[in-house]
Amino acid sequence: MVSVEQVSRRFGNLVALDRVSLRVNPGEVFGLLGPNGSGKTTLIRILTGVLLPNTGRAHVAGLDVGRYPDRVKAAIGYSTQEASVYRDLTVRENLEFRARLYLGARAVSCAVEETLRRFGLQDAAHQLAGALSGGWRQRLAIAQAVVHEPKVVFLDEPTTGLDPVSRRTIWDLIHQEAARGAVVVVTTHYMDEAERCHRLALLYGGKVIAQGTPHELEQLAQQSARVAYSETSLPLEQIRAMPGVLDGWPSGSGVRLILEKNYPTPNLPLQTVYPNLEDVFIVLTRRRIASTMNVDEKGGAA
Ligand SMILES: Nc1ncnc2c1ncn2[C@@H]1O[C@H](COP(=O)(O)OP(=O)(O)OP(=O)(O)O)[C@@H](O)[C@H]1O
Ligand SMILES: [Mg+2]
Fold first, then answer.
1. Could you state, in order of their start, the residue ranges of all structural domains in the chain?
2. Percent of the chain having pLDDT more than 90?
3. CB 301: neighbour CB atoms within 10 A?
4. Test site for ligand 1: of 20, 41, 45, 54, most ligand atoms within 8 A of the Cβ
5. pLDDT at residue 300 greater than cutoff 80
6. CA torsion sign, 18 to 22 to 24 to 28?
7. Which residue's CA is the closest to the ligand 1 atom numbered 29?
């Protein structure tokens, strides 16, 4: 299990993580979704024992990460954002190298063969990792992270830069890890991928701004906003400037709109649309930006 209670981390004056709390159970794929710089990697580095939190506590696989970072490192699997594999070693050698860090000599070969099989890497076993395409290298990076079948797996942006088919394959492999009972924590920028997580936390400016299943988050957005499609030829700037319009962008021959509920409906032909996670993100962050802007304006006027 992974549990995080009020974890904060600063780098100089920058607050990279601000009182983050969350909990992930075995068999769960938990997503950390957020824009660049929102603190995803920082949180993963704390949970993998690489970085210490300034305040708060986190437990991974029953261990306090602040007190036993080295034992945490030994209990988990971690694929970093850079997906580091040794390019001048073959696929099999990369797996053997990783497995030896965790397993006794006798268990290594068995674990490597089993992992090659599970990840469909048998035919590539003799290839140099440096000669693999991005998708296959990423598959190897994840295979490396789990070759010792850790109870907790952290994958930092495992699909960035991959085509949709490769991303799909990687997600099947991620779910395969959860199905064997592992806790899986995965970061992503892709909203469509976030829908594949059992639960997720939306990170923004180092804070968790919402947490739940994709469906729960979509419902949360619906409490304060309405997502709609409008078949209109009005200029986008004019639509965006209408009161209560949080955002709008071209969609097909019309516009997809996010409307605040406590405003009168704009005078446009509207069809309500079920929100996706991108809409949820916009609803939650725009309202936050709007409220901070109000605070700043007041501050400026005072
Ligand atoms: N070692 C460090 N020293 C100083 N600042 C850092 C350090 N590591 C991270 N930061 C800062 O902390 C903030 C959070 O960074 P982090 O890498 O956690 O974001 P992220 O959500 O993983 O972003 P990305 O999506 O780009 O990978 C950023 O503003 C970053 O510049
Ligand atoms: Mg990152």
1. 2-212, 217-301
2. 78
3. 6
4. 41
5. no
6. negative
7. 37
Q: Does domain 2-212 have CATH number 3.50.50.60?
A: no
The SS3 of residue 14 is strand
Q: Which residues have C-beta within 8 Å of that of residue 230, sequence separation ≥ 6?
A: 239, 254, 255, 257, 268, 269, 270, 271
> Which residue is closest in CA terms to ligand 1's atom 24?
36
Domain 217-301, CATH number (from 3.30.70, 2.20.28, 2.40.170, 3.40.50): 3.30.70
Q: Give 69 Cα–ligand 1 centroid separation in angstroms.
A: 20
- ∠ Cα 66 17 191 (to 5°): 120
Nearest CA to ligand 1 atom 19: 37
CA dist 190 and 161 (Å) reads: 11
pLDDT at 269 over 90: yes
What beta strand segments (E) does the chain contain? 2-11, 14-24, 29-33, 55-60, 63-64, 76-79, 152-155, 183-188, 199-204, 207-212, 225-230, 245-251, 254-260, 271-272
pLDDT of residue 295: 41
Rg from Cα positions in the chain: 22
d(CA 229, CA 212): 26
Rounded to whole angstroms, the Cα distance separating 82 from 161 reads 11
Ligand 2 ion: Cβ-proximal residues, 5 Å cutoff: 40-41, 81
pLDDT at position 287: 65
- What predicted TM-score, i.e. pTM, was given to this entire model? 0.90
Question: pLDDT (tens digit, 9 = 90+) per residue, 19-67?
Answer: 999 999 999 999 999 999 999 999 999 999 999 999 999 999 999 999 9
Kindly report the protein residue whose alpha carbon is nearest to atom 27 of ligand 1: 36
- pLDDT of 293 > 50? The answer is no
Query: Which amino acid, one-letter code, is at 164?
Result: P
